[in-house]
Each structure stands twice: as structure tokens, then as C-alpha cells.
């Protein structure tokens, strides 16, 4: 496995793309390109969670996908020491920069596709919580001027083949009326939007469930009914919007489990309270869903298998 940490900005160490590129082998794909998954950890646009980074990349690598983890622009964990009330706007981490960094990561992967044996037409994006919101935003803006005009590139460079959203925040207007932790979301709004009191117009613009269109990619959603931080209604709202626009999607709502489960096994857990076997089923379910779109180009029988079969005769 080729593991590299690539800085997306020369003068910043906080925005990086970490590669988990599977080694090529003549016993497996023998030079053929693999599909890939680009992962965005959550963290309320204040931090990027380690629990939703490498453990998730390893899960997708075990399925046979190249994996990439994007640590996008966030406000910074120092806010937990200073307090949300002392936050000041930081333009470098505000909308639309985080989703533009998904576009920048997508370009980086495609520019290196030949060396990394990545199929550039089969790159999915996957996020959790705020990272899921970032992926959902990218899934509805990838072909819009906020991305294409900024990079001055053809929209096809940025097209995601699929989108996987874990306990996604999809509707900021709904959250405004139904949030359960005002101080926390005021801080998240300051980090992401530069204000604790954004206008309804801005909230609608950053609500992916309100901006789904015909070019939104097929989407896999999962969440838990017990999530008290990002209520399950966000996933339902996103699913409703996808259905309205006839976008293929699959959704799984697990009965039990708090917010932030990641892969919901000991691979990503800090305590037993973050292990829910039922919720952990999202990983094989996502694997099966992706396989319908990203089926590997495998022969019916390898040369080695054919040789051994002929010897047996």
C-alpha cells in the first residue's frame, strides 16, 4: 500500500490528502485500474475526526478500493479551549472552500490516476456528519460555477460517480428550528459560514437537500434513529429530495446508536459506547451498493487458474 500525505496548499499543513493506494499485483488486477473512494471526516467544521478517517479508509481498502482521506479546511480545535463565544470569522475555512477542496482532491487523484491505477470515472465520495454535509454539498455543486469557474476546468473533471453519506446534516433551515445544542451549532455556523446568525437565504444555499438536481450522483445514506445531534430527519429529507429528482439512492436507518459511530466497530471506537453491531452493517451494505456500480473488470478465470485446471485434467 502506498501511503502519502499530500499538502493541497504549499503554505498550509492542515489541508491534506492522504493516499491509501493498494499495491498492484499480477495475481490480482495486474495493472488494471481500481475504483476509489474519497473520504471526508466529520467534526462540525471545527476539526476533522481521526475516527472517521483511516478506519474508514481501511474498510474500503479491504473491499478492494483505493481510498483517500481529505482533511479539508476547518476552524481549528483551539476553539474548544477558548470557547465558542470568542470565535472570530476565518475566511479560509468558510463556505465554499471546504467543498472546493473536494474538487481539488478530485483533480489530484485524476492527475495521478495512471500512476495509482485509479479508474477516473469510478471515484465515489464518502463523508460523515459535517464531512457528509461537505460531500452532499459537493454532490449538488460539482457542476456549478462555485466549482467550475473557480478552477476554470470543465465540469467533467469534478464529476463524482457516487456519494455515501453517514449521519448527514442536509437541511440547515430545518436545523435552525430543531437544533438540540444551540451553542455548538452557533460555533459550527461561525466556523463554516462566518456568522452565528446566518440569513435564511444563506442557510438554504448550504442545504444540499434543497439543492438536489438531475446531476446529483447516486447516493447511499445511513444514520441512526437515536442520533440526538444530527437528527435522522436530515437523512430522510435528503432521501426525499433524491426521490423527487429520480436520483438512484439507498437508505438505511438503524434503530440504535449515537452520533459519530464511524465504522461502529473497535476499529474506530474510543469506548464500547461507540460499537453498535447493527449500525456496523452499513459497511457491507455500502460495499454491495457500490458493487452494482463499480463492479471490477475481472475475467471468468485467471491464466494461473486455467493452467492449474488444465494440469488437473
From TrEMBL:
<dbReference type="Pfam" id="PF20434">
    <property type="entry name" value="BD-FAE"/>
</dbReference>
<dbReference type="GO" id="GO:0016787">
    <property type="term" value="F:hydrolase activity"/>
</dbReference>
<feature type="domain" description="BD-FAE-like">
    <location>
        <begin position="90"/>
        <end position="242"/>
    </location>
</feature>
<keyword id="KW-0378">Hydrolase</keyword>
<dbReference type="InterPro" id="IPR029058">
    <property type="entry name" value="AB_hydrolase_fold"/>
</dbReference>
<protein>
    <submittedName>
        <fullName>Alpha/beta hydrolase</fullName>
    </submittedName>
</protein>
<dbReference type="InterPro" id="IPR049492">
    <property type="entry name" value="BD-FAE-like_dom"/>
</dbReference>
<dbReference type="InterPro" id="IPR050300">
    <property type="entry name" value="GDXG_lipolytic_enzyme"/>
</dbReference>
Amino acid at each position: 500500500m502506498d501511503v502519502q500525505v499530500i499538502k493541497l496548499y504549499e503554505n498550509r499543513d492542515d489541508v491534506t490528502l492522504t493516499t491509501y493506494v493498494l499495491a498492484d499485483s499480477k495475481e490480482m488486477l495486474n495493472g488494471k485500474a481500481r475504483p476509489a473512494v474519497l473520504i471526508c471526516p466529520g467534526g462540525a467544521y471545527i476539526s476533522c475526526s481521526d475516527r472517521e478517517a483511516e478506519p474508514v479508509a481501511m474498510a474500503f481498502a479491504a473491499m478492494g478500493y483505493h481510498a483517500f482521506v481529505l482533511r479539508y479546511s476547518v476552524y481549528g480545535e483551539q476553539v474548544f479551549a477558548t470557547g465558542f463565544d470568542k470565535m472570530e470569522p476565518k475566511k479560509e475555512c468558510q463556505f465554499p472552500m471546504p467543498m472546493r477542496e473536494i474538487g481539488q482532491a478530485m483533480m489530484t487523484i485524476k492527475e495521478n490516476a495512471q500512476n495509482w491505477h485509479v479508474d477516473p470515472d469510478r471515484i465515489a465520495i464518502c463523508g460523515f456528519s459535517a464531512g457528509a454535509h461537505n460531500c452532499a454539498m459537493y454532490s449538488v455543486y460539482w457542476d456549478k460555477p462555485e466549482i467550475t469557474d473557480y478552477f476554470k476546468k470543465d465540469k467533467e473533471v469534478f464529476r463524482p460517480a457516487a456519494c455515501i453519506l453517514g449521519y448527514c446534516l442536509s437541511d440547515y433551515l430545518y436545523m435552525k428550528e430543531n437544533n438540540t445544542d444551540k451553542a455548538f451549532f452557533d460555533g459550527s455556523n461561525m466556523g463554516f459560514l462566518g456568522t452565528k446568525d446566518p440569513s435564511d437565504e444563506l442557510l438554504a444555499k448550504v442545504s444540499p437537500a434543497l439543492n438536489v438536481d438531475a446531476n446529483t450522483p447516486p447516493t447511499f445514506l445511513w444514520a441512526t434513529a437515536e442520533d440526538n445531534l444530527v437528527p435522522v430527519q436530515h437523512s430522510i429529507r435528503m432521501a426525499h429530495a433524491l426521490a423527487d429528482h429520480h436520483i438512484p439512492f439507498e437508505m438505511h436507518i438503524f434503530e440504535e446508536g449515537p452520533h459519530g459511530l464511524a465504522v461502529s466497530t473497535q476499529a474506530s471506537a474510543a469506548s464500547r459506547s461507540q460499537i453498535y453491531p447493527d449500525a456496523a452493517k452499513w459497511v457491507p451494505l455500502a460495499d454491495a451498493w457500490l458493487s452494482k456500480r463499480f463492479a471490477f473488470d475481472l475475467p471468468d478465470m485467471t491464466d494461473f487458474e486455467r493452467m492449474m485446471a488444465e494440469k488437473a485434467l
